[in-house]
Every structure is written in structure tokens, then in C-alpha cells.
Amino acid sequence: MISYVVLRIVGAALLALVGWQIGTAVSAGLGTAAFLPWGLTGVVAGAVLGGAFTPYVTLTPTRRIRERIETLSASRILAGLTGLLIGLLIAVLISVPVARIEGWLGVWIPVTLSVLLGLTGVVIMLIREQDLSRFLPQGGEPSLSADERSPGQTVVDTSAIIDGRIADISQTGFVNATMVIPRFVLDELRHIADSSDSLRRNRGRRGLEMLNKLRKEATVPVQVLDVDQWDGMEVDSKLVNLAKSLGASIITTDYNLNRVAEIQGIRVLNVNDLSNALKAVVLPGEDIQVRVIQEGKEVGQGVGFLDDGTMVVVENGRRFMDTITDVTVTRVLQTAAGRLIFAQIKVR
Predict the structure, then answer these.
(1) Which of 9, 68, 78, 156 is most open to solvent, judged by the fewest CB atoms within 10 Å of its CB?
(2) Before 137, cis peptide (omega within 30)?
(3) 287-345 in CATH: which number?
């Protein structure tokens, strides 16, 4: 607030001086040296414009530039500066003989060469940023591939918190990295919990409960990161950018976020994939017991479920509704939704 006031005062004073000079020049052009009315008009107009618009043409652009720079890696900034310096150096070498030309060509050709070659150098070095990062010292911030990133942190998505299984998984010790929960994920959870839709509201409240359980019972540190420097982006995009800047992985149950993150080289820990991997392995020919609880799509079929939720379709199992029946596995299908088992009644 103080910076805004100071900037308005400074801007008003500077533009008042400019307005005074303009008013004086106008008065001289009209053949009068009087301060009134043009000098006073210039001072007032300059003070008003300076006080009103100075913060918007100074602080706002500066803040946006700073936020943009904060999202850039050190290797990317170094690559841009290196390309700019190389381009300007080449432009200077070319411009030495050209500058001897008399007239406007001797001025504008070097300026044009400097701009074009400087921009060309920046673009080329940004494209080859990965090559430049190899020459950085180990103490710097080189660009790492997905396999080289440190496993010390993992960013938790909203969907994983609402799902709740991550709280139980963290207690088993399978997660050994610090779990980072960004502030914008908490804001999204709070927004869902305050929704007018009862279903969304219940999901949001469950997420907040799971988050409290996670912070109290997790065997690894849980860090709430107060960062939200990607204004205007969706939560998924913010998560990807944050994970990329931290060199961290992402814990989620969101299929779309999973694919987007993998495309950008970020390691994803999908709770659904873990759940599918831990389901009991059943091979064709094995005998299992299942309770048939409903009819199948085909005539005579019955449907039951194993303890881990795997669906079992029993041929001719309709007549065994609501009973625990011995069945023989005939085939196992792995689908995008999970594992599907087909079986038939065991012949005694």
C-alpha cells in the first residue's frame, strides 16, 4: 500500500514537471510568457495522470515479469542470456565495416542486425537448452529427466486426497517421500466442500477429513506448500508445473492428469494402478469361492465379487443367487476398468 502511495506521488511530481514544460512551450508558441493558463493546465494534467496511472505502468508489469521469471529454470535463463550475448557479438563483428557507411544506413543496419541476431541467438539457445545444461556445474540446477529426478518429494492431487486410500497407503511405509500439498489443492478442496451440490459437498468434506487423517497418521512428512504463481491455469496444469519445478512425482487417481504428466516426463504414482497390481492373481483352471449376488447380462449368468472387488461372471450361476458357490476359472480379462474373471460352476 505504501509503495502505491509513493509511486503515485513520484509519478504525479514527474509528470507535473513534464506538463509544466509542455505548457511553457505552448505559451511560447502562442507568443506569451504567462504561466496561466497553459502552464497551470499542463501541471494539473500531468499531476493527475501521473498519480492515477503510474502504479499500473510500473508495479503491475514488474510483478508479472517477476512471476514469469520465477517459473523459469536457471538453465533456461542462462540459455537465453548466452544466446543473446552470442547474437549481439556476431552483430557487432558484422556491423564494424557497415558502420563506416555514411548516412542513415550506417546507423540502422547495425541496429537491425543487433535485434535480429540477438533474437535468433536466444531462440537457438532455448531450443538447445538440454545440450547447454550438460556443461553446468553439479551445484547448479540442470534440467533432469524423469528417471534422474530426486524421489524426495511427491505432489498430492485433489483426487487422491478425496479417494482416501493414500492415507492408508502412507501408514504402510510404501510411500517414502515427503508428500507436498499445494495451497491451490486446499483451495479446491474447500471450494468443493462449500458446493451447493450435495454430492460434491460430501466429496469435499471427505477430502478434508482424509487430509487431516493424512497429516496426523502419515509415517512421512506432509508439507503444505503456499505457492500459487500460475494464475489463470487449471489445477491440473498447476500441479504439472509445480512437480516439474520441484523435480517431484505426482500422486493421483485422475486418468487425464496421469496421461498429461507422463507426456511431460513427470513420474506419476496412480493409486488405481497400485490397487490393480495388488489384486490376487487368479489363473484359468483354479477353483475359487464366490457369492453370486446379482444376475449377469446374458441369460443364466450370475455375478459375484472377490474380496478385492474383482468382478466374477459365473456361467449358469443365476440359480445360485445369494449363495457361496465353488467355481472354476475359465478365463481372465484385464480391462481399463480392472480385472474381469469368467468362471463356471465347479463340477463335483
Answers:
(1) 68
(2) no
(3) 2.40.50.140
